[in-house]
Amino acid sequence: MSAPAVREPKPPLIWVNTLMFALTFGIALIATPWYGLTHGFTTATWIVALFFTTASGMAITAGYHRLWAHRTYDAHWSFKLFLLLFGTMSLQNSVFAWASGHRTHHLNVDDEDKDPYSIRRGFWFAHIGWMVREYPSGREDFSNIPDLKRDPMLAFQHRHYVPLVLVINFGMPILAGLIFGDVIGMLILAGFMRLVWSHHVTFFINSLAHMWGNRPYTEENTARDNPVLAVITYGEGYHNFHHLFAHDYRNGVRWWQWDPTKWLIGLLSFFGITRRLKRTPAFQIQKALLAMQFTRAQARLAKYPAETHKHLEPLRARLAHEYENFLAAVADWARVKEEWLNEKKRAVLEHWDQVDLQSKLREIERRLNLQRRRLRVLQAQLA
User: Fold this and answer.
1) Using H for helix, E for strand and C for coil, what is the string for 244-259?
2) Rounded Cα–Cα distance for residues 251 and 260 (Å)
3) pLDDT category, 312, cuts 50, 70, 90?
4) What is the pTM of this model?
5) Between 373 and 143, residue with greater pLDDT
6) Residue 66 above 50 pLDDT?
7) Cβ contacts of residue 136 below 8 Å, gap of 6+?
8) Quick one: 54 and 107 in the same domain?
9) Whether residues 81 and 173 fall in one domain
């Protein structure tokens, strides 16, 4: 008889985090309906709570995530200060800790030993469990944020994080309550309820966004695009796109995709408050979409042996032809792009007009877009 498997003991609890999550959740769950039914929340309390919720949530998406973790754009110091203030209010650790852990997540996504919140270890672990026990994968290592450590504002926040959290999370709701005459209601709704909502909405990106949705750009990791999650996470729900193109300031890359964080960053760029916004070239996005469509179409065709499904032969031929066109477009784009870069260097000295090569690049991108439409028709026939 084989010996029974020995279960490894769980790492010790991080009591500060465990108590913080448990107490804030309990207070929000019990106090919010009790106070609402017995006293009622004023209109001013709801407005302040909504503002604090939105500001602290977008401070995570626009600040902690897209500005500092991925450096997808730069911003004026005043906007950075605003993001730092409300990011601290979100009670998700300092920028140093948050960004460092997130960069580790992207580098080792889905690795059970190295990804701090790998979904391979289950929903609970990815959602909140990784923060309540001393897992080796969650140990802080700031060697991957040398750029952030040079920022004096971020260093100040990290150094004085605990007093800043206490003052901002309790002080601001209490101050608002004194101004509008409802301290308890403001503390419950704009303090505890806002905090719990902001926590779990952010945590859904680590858990649900790696479980629920589709993968139009890559299947090399578990990240999914989910428009429902995008609505409650200020645009972070387009997670499959984000994991492939992490240095794009947009998550919802299509104009119609809900991404208020993208819209805020873009709007502020008109006033010079944000600048150097990084965008993935349209060709690279089209290339990724087409590559996934080809992979899925080929997998679907492979299920049917050629000798038993002769009527599929024309579809196989069409798919092979489209794939040859795809490879040719990729090669053409690479060649024209190289020419464009060379001419751009020369233009610095000669002021040469690069419109011709730019139009060639746009034409290749148009060809890929048309090919995507043809491939959708082909996939419908395969289905």
Assistant:
1) HCCCCCCCCCCCCCCC
2) 10
3) low
4) 0.83
5) 143
6) yes
7) 11, 113
8) yes
9) yes
Exposure string for 342-374, b = 16+ CB within 10 A, e = fewer: ebeeeeeeeeeeeeebeebbeebbebbeebeee
- Of 250, 275, 300, which closes a domain? 275
Q: Write out the residue range of the structural domain in which residue 358 sits.
A: 282-382
End-to-end CA distance of the chain: 50
Q: Could you tell me the CA-to-CA distances from 138 to 20, 106, 107, 316, 345 in Å, in that order? A: 18, 14, 14, 48, 45
pLDDT band, residue 103 (cuts 50/70/90): very high
Give pLDDT, residue 294.
74
Q: What is the mean pLDDT of residues 374-382?
A: 62
Q: Is residue 157 part of a domain?
A: yes
How many whole angstroms separate alpha carbon 300 and alpha carbon 42? Answer: 58
Q: Identify whether 6 is part of a domain.
A: no
For residues 112 and 121, the answer to whether their CB atoms sit within 8 Å is yes
* Count of beta carbons in the 10 Å neighbourhood of residue 168: 18
Letter for the amino acid at 45?
T
Question: Comparing C-alpha atoms, which of 47, 57, 61, 31 is closest to residue 190?
Answer: 47
Clarify whether residues 106 and 20 are in a common domain. yes
How big is the CA angle at 43 (ends 40 and 49), to the nearest 5 degrees? 90
d(CA 279, CA 156): 31
Question: Considering its fold, how many domains does the chain have in total?
Answer: 2
Two tokens, residue 362: 């746009």
By C-alpha distance, which of 121, 113, 144 is closest to 222?
Answer: 121
Residue from 346, 373, 174 nearest 290 by CA: 373
Query: Are the C-beta atoms of 288 and 84 separated by less than 8 Å?
Result: no
Residue with tokens 């042996």, as numbered in its chain: 305
CA distances from 56 to 50, 221, 316, 349, 375 (A): 10, 29, 52, 47, 42
